[in-house]
């Protein structure tokens, strides 16, 4: 076991206009202006994390493009790989990947984000050829009615190491019920992956409400579970208003789920939620939970970068004390 210095980037993502992928501002220089702004924000957070000698930065679910601007998703992943390699830091978050229906015009191969510098000290050019190409494509090939009504989208978490290599991916299986109208659940086996700090796994937001899902990772020897999340303080509305309830119910629910999953899997649990204005429904609450220590980092409600050191040596003691993992292994053998 070793030490991990983790940066929790509780960002306040700019949300793209509702509806299927399309040119956000016709005839503008940027076909995906909200994604551009979110990427620039990500670079700022990464630079601050690097300045504080963090080794990993975790971002929220939907921290770049939500469920609407999905066609250039492979270019987003490439951009983040280049950012991780340039800044020499590992990155974790989730991206929504989308595909066009069979027979539709293929999307451009050029990246509409390559013009964005990987350092905030540099300024992007006014307009790049790739931006113009994507703008022309989105104007000439809008989505069909069927594509708009039934998009094929996958919400996939990634872990990129400090060399820019994708060493872990996981597609969200347990969808919050409104997501089921848009997102296709993952079907592949949930796998851990090796990092320099130990074995790691990933879950996404509503996944944390499913204990068996976390147990799958524990059964594979996970030491760390990263959980990109986008959970509003209003997600239980309007039903919750039928009952007298704790004003902090939603916040306390998420905090309890994180600590419960941490203890029962005997892992370091790292959850990053979106932050922002509470009047817009944001509740933040990102943090790190560790057996025998509890919650060791907290981000409040608004946008914030929190850097914390984690000694994974505590897992050895907690596993010897509680023997949750040992008992689970015995059940698997019987």
UniProtKB/TrEMBL annotation:
What InterPro entries is this protein classified in?
Aliph_Amidase/BUP (IPR050345), C-N_Hydrolase (IPR003010), C-N_Hydrolase_sf (IPR036526)
Q: Where are the transmembrane segments?
A: none
Q: Which GO terms describe its molecular function?
A: hydrolase activity, acting on carbon-nitrogen (but not peptide) bonds, in linear amides
List, for all copies, the residue spans of the domain called CN hydrolase.
4-323
PROSITE patterns (alphabetical)? CN_HYDROLASE
- Write out the entry's keywords from A to Z: Hydrolase
The name of this protein is: CN hydrolase domain-containing protein
